[in-house]
Structure formats: C-alpha cells, structure tokens
Automatic annotation (TrEMBL):
Keywords: Lyase, Schiff base. The keyword Transcription regulation does not apply. Its EC number is 4.1.2.4. GO terms for biological process: carbohydrate catabolic process; deoxyribonucleotide catabolic process. The keyword rRNA-binding does not apply. This is Deoxyribose-phosphate aldolase. InterPro entries: Aldolase_TIM (IPR013785), DeoC (IPR011343), DeoC/FbaB/LacD_aldolase (IPR002915). GO terms for cellular component: cytoplasm.
Length: 336
C-alpha cells in the first residue's frame, strides 16, 4: 500500500505500512494462575469514557482513509454461517475473498494481491471452501464445539474439532461454556480450552467468549486471561448470534488483557471482534483501538481479524467513492 510520511502516526493519520507476515511463535499457554484471574477487574464507566473518545480523536480522510480501509479488508474473516449455506454460496464467497475489491479500483490505487484474511464456514462447507481457495494462501476457518451455544456433549465437541482439522481447516473458532465464567469456575474453563487446544493440533485456536452473555466486563477480562493461559491463539468477542456482540468497551477490555498477558509471558495472542461491525467507519474505529492499545504489530492477519461479511460491501463502496467520486448502489456489492 502507498505510505505517506507527512502525517502523525500517533493520530492514526499515516497509511499503514505493509507489515511483513511473520509467523510468530504460538501462544504456549501457562499454568492457570487463579490469583492473577481474581485480581482482574474493570471499571465499566472508565472503559466507556475511553471508548467514547475514539471516533473523534482518530479521524482519517482521503488517500489515508483508503489505505486504512484496504488494510481492514486484509483482516476480514469473510463469513457465512447460515442454515441454508450451499457449496455454491461458499464458492461465491471464496471468489470474493480472492478478489475482495474490484480490480479497476485496486489498479487505480496501485494495489495488487489483496485478499481477505480467511474464509469462515461450518464444518460441512470446509471441502467446497478449500476447493474454491486452492492455489491461494487464504486459510479456511471452521466454527466448532457446538457453535453457537456450545452445549453439546464434551466428547462431541472434541470430535468436531478433530474432524474439522482432518478435513483441512487451519483455524478453528470454538465457543466456551459460558456457565464456567458465570459461576467463576476458572479451573473448568481452563481445562476445557486446554483440551480444545490439544484437539486442534496444528490449527490455530480462536476462542469465542460470547461476551454479550458474560454479564460484566470483569468477567470478560477474567475469561480472556484464562483462555490465553490455556493456550488460545486468538480471543474473539462473539459468535454473532448473541443479542449483543462486539462493543468497544468489550474490545478495550480484551485487548488490555492481551497486552497484560504479553507483558507477563512474552506470548502474543490475537484478537477478533465479531458481530455488528458492518460499516467502514466501524472498522476504522476498531483499527484505531488496536493501534492505540497494542501497536502496529497487531495490525496484521496473524494477530487481528474482523469477523464480518457485510463490512466488506461498505468498505468497497467507500473505496469506490474515493477513486471515482461517486457511490454505487449497495446491491452492486453482493457477497453470496
């Protein structure tokens, strides 16, 4: 992506550099530290005040905004998780993942090789996704463990992970048992995620906290720490199926837990907000949060993803406006 050195990077006004896609060591996890978990606490009012400042303080325009939006595209887990999914729909989604923004718009911006971060599907759609993505470097992520509720038998959830890895998924998005958080049974949550990590083997494990069902930001912080201690490669806000999904106070809570965990252990853990992020403006605010709290290293697909589909359509419309000066109709940007 083009980069200018005339703006202030502290204000998110510099176009993001093309960060090298370095494979960092996986989070090995650590023994459960109940004292560290109990000490974690979040002041909701303070978190909300901090998040309220983000949209106004981190404003970008013109070519800088376009560059940040292209960065956002590279971080999307393009997702279809519907009961009426078909191989044809998945193939169309994968085609969009390979060419997420119209070629003429990318040519005008001098950008090539742009893809989304991954394609996320149910287990039954792994095979058509792999076929449609053959020859690309785009990974297939599969939701697992009784998604979205996570209430199937434990042995079934482990078998589901193993089956998806065997089918070729290189990333597994699992859901935790919310009851362990709500009852403060941190040992049970740790053991559960540790077992999921073992079942995933070489696949990267993204643990979905379903934060809208955890009650408090303190619970979100404690669950985040426990999942990271158990070896999660990513922590993710939501399934997208809860009444409340990704919110900025939840995101702030989770990324600060990631920052603390990295400071103590040296392990980097990724972050994935999912659900309710549907506009280019939303994406820019989330990128500002990550840049402020975790730094540029996390602005890379190996450490940050958006769980979204409708987001891409709005970003493409904004990029078209930047290039042509006009918006096209939303129906011209279908995903399925």
């Amino acid at each position: 992506m083009p980069r200018t050195h005339t703006e202030d990077p502290a204000n998110l006004c510099t176009a993001p550099a093309a960060l090298p896609q370095l494979a960092h060591p996986r989070n090995l996890g650590i023994p459960l530290d109940p004292g560290w978990v109990r000490r974690a606490a979040v002041n909701r009012s303070a978190a909300e005040r901090r998040c309220a400042t983000l949209p106004g303080r981190r404003s970008v325009k013109g070519s800088i905004q376009a560059a940040w939006l292209l960065k956002a595209v590279s971080l999307i887990d393009l997702t279809t998780l519907a009961g009426d999914d078909t191989p044809g729909r998945v193939r169309r989604l994968c085609a969009k993942a390979r060419q997420p923004v119209r070629a003429d718009l990318l040519d005008a911006l001098g950008v090539s090789g742009l893809t989304t971060g991954a394609v996320c599907v149910y287990h039954e759609m792994i095979a058509p996704a792999l076929d449609a993505l053959a020859g690309s470097d785009i990974p297939v992520a599969a939701v697992s463990t009784g998604f979205p509720a996570g209430l199937t038998p434990f042995a079934t959830r482990l078998a589901e992970i193993e089956a998806s890895v065997a089918a070729g998924a290189s990333e597994i998005d699992i859901v935790i048992s919310r009851r362990h958080v709500l009852t403060g049974d941190w040992a049970a949550l740790y053991d559960e995620v540790r077992a999921f990590r073992a079942a995933a083997g070489p696949a990267h494990l993204k643990t979905i906290l379903a934060t809208g069902e955890l009650g408090t930001l303190t619970n979100v912080a404690r669950a985040s720490l426990v999942c990271m201690m158990a070896g999660a490669d990513f922590i993710k806000t939501s399934t997208g199926k809860e009444p409340v999904n990704a919110t900025l106070p939840v995101g702030l809570t989770m990324v600060r837990a990631i920052r603390e965990y990295h400071a103590v252990t040296g392990h980097r853990v990724g972050f994935k907000p999912a659900g309710g992020i549907s506009t280019a403006k939303d994406a820019l605010v989330w990128l500002a949060l990550i840049k402020d709290e975790l730094g540029d290293r996390w602005l890379s697909p190996d450490l940050f993803r958006f769980g979204a589909s409708s987001l891409l359509a709005d970003i493409e419309r904004q990029i078209e406006h930047h290039v042509t000066g006009a918006y096209s109709a939303a129906w011209r940007h279908p995903l399925g």
